[in-house]
Write a structure and sequence with these properties.
23 helices, two-stranded antiparallel ribbon, mainly alpha
Length: 392
């Protein structure tokens, strides 16, 4: 996986507006979507997060996601559907917690809302559980198969990486905010037969503390003897880490403490200074540029401006990461991803397209219609890269 896990580190991202083959006319949820947009357009994302989950179970999960697509098409200002998808996942698990593994297969095949539905399943299943070490060891065999192909779920490597990231969040709940035990749980399951997902799991552990969303998340933060801040986070990261990889994950997940400078690009260079080593410095830039992408899904000019503030040596990475975030939010967003590369300065644009093409086998499931469609969109000189094997 290495450098291709770029957008995963920013799971509070903003969802791109790609409706793909879904139509405002043909979908059975059109009337519902129109009514919700009329109700929520002045209030925004919190209203959508409140109103759309009410549709379930009268509408199936598939139908609910069709409504989300229509809402995002009708209201371009609403792009942040990851939290909404969380709530749908939690609603499904609440019906029958014992079937949580089977529920993963209900995640939209195009990754709409960046797999927030899967995260909601995990958190809904385990939010109220705190496991001592014996019970944790008993639970690990079930947890270690959750992000692997099973039943009707046939994930891409990207799907798996996002899944393991969500597992890091869960481990913080299961251990009652014990960083060491949560990170040890990542170490126990993060290297699977299908890939090494340790990095994204560790990032999920630390993100859970830096980016609380729900009351239970904030309650978890309150368990910490010392809360992270812009003044103390570097010291806390050393305290809670046993390896440079863990320290780096902690440092880069602290980006919400410096939100404005990250999202507009002006503070990225300073934020990524004083990392444990060059590998973690690269990972920091990957995280920061993924944030740029997720926070600019409805504003390409904003992303172009932010990438332009980085050193020339980091601009290819920035544009290609921003482009990838479009595909992570929805696999039908190929035109939007390619447009990001096309907006880069001439020396960067071609490299951006090549990188994006090579990542196709990571982003899309093998032999998927979405991948074939995307590869037909990229320029012919990089199309063979798009149809080839996953980069390592």
């Amino acid at each position: 996986m290495s450098r291709i896990v770029l957008g995963i580190v920013a799971m509070v991202g903003v969802c791109a507006s790609g409706v793909g083959a879904f139509s405002l006319v043909s979908s059975p949820g059109t009337a519902t979507a129109s009514e919700i947009v009329a109700l929520c357009v002045s209030e925004g994302e919190k209203c959508y997060e409140r109103e759309v989950p009410k549709l379930y179970p009268a509408l199936s999960i598939s139908e609910a996601f069709s409504v989300i697509r229509e809402i995002r098409a009708a209201d371009p200002s609403y792009q942040f559907c990851h939290v909404l998808a969380h709530k749908l996942g939690e609603a499904v698990v609440a019906e029958d917690p014992a079937k949580w593994l089977d529920a993963i297969a209900l995640n939209p095949s195009d990754n709409l809302c960046s797999n927030g539905f899967i995260h909601g399943i995990f958190v809904g299943r385990y939010r109220d559980d705190v496991l001592d070490e014996r019970r944790m060891q008993e639970a690990l065999p079930e947890l270690e198969i959750a992000c692997e192909p099973h039943g009707e779920w046939h994930p891409s490597p990207l799907d798996q990486a996002i899944c393991y990231h969500g597992m890091g969040h869960v481990f913080m709940f299961l251990t009652n905010a014990d960083f060491r035990r949560a990170l040890d749980a990542c170490n126990a399951i993060g290297e699977s037969l299908t890939g090494n997902f340790l990095r994204v799991c560790r990032e999920g552990v630390f993100m859970q503390i830096y980016q609380p969303l729900e009351p239970d998340d904030f309650a978890l933060v309150e368990l910490l003897p010392e809360k992270p801040s812009a003044e103390n986070y570097r010291r806390l990261c050393k305290t809670h880490s046993e390896t440079l990889e863990e320290e780096g994950a902690c440092l880069r997940e602290a980006w919400p403490l410096f939100r404005t400078g990250i999202t507009d690009g002006s503070g990225i260079v300073e934020f990524c200074s004083a990392q444990p080593n060059d590998v973690e410095t690269d990972a920091c830039y990957q995280t920061a540029t993924a944030i740029v992408g997720r926070m600019s899904l409805g504003n390409q000019d904003q992303a172009v401006k932010a990438c332009g503030l980085l050193p020339p040596s980091r601009q290819v990475e920035c544009f290609s990461t921003v482009a990838q975030t479009r595909l992570e939010e929805g696999q039908t967003n190929g035109e939007k991803a390619i447009a990001v590369c096309a907006a880069a300065p001439a020396p960067v644009a071609g490299d951006c397209l090549g990188i994006l093409a090579r990542r196709a086998s990571f982003i899309f499931p093998p032999a998927s219609a979405e991948r074939s469609r995307f590869c037909l969109l990229v320029p012919e000189d990089v199309r063979s890269l798009c149809m080839g094997q996953a980069p390592r």
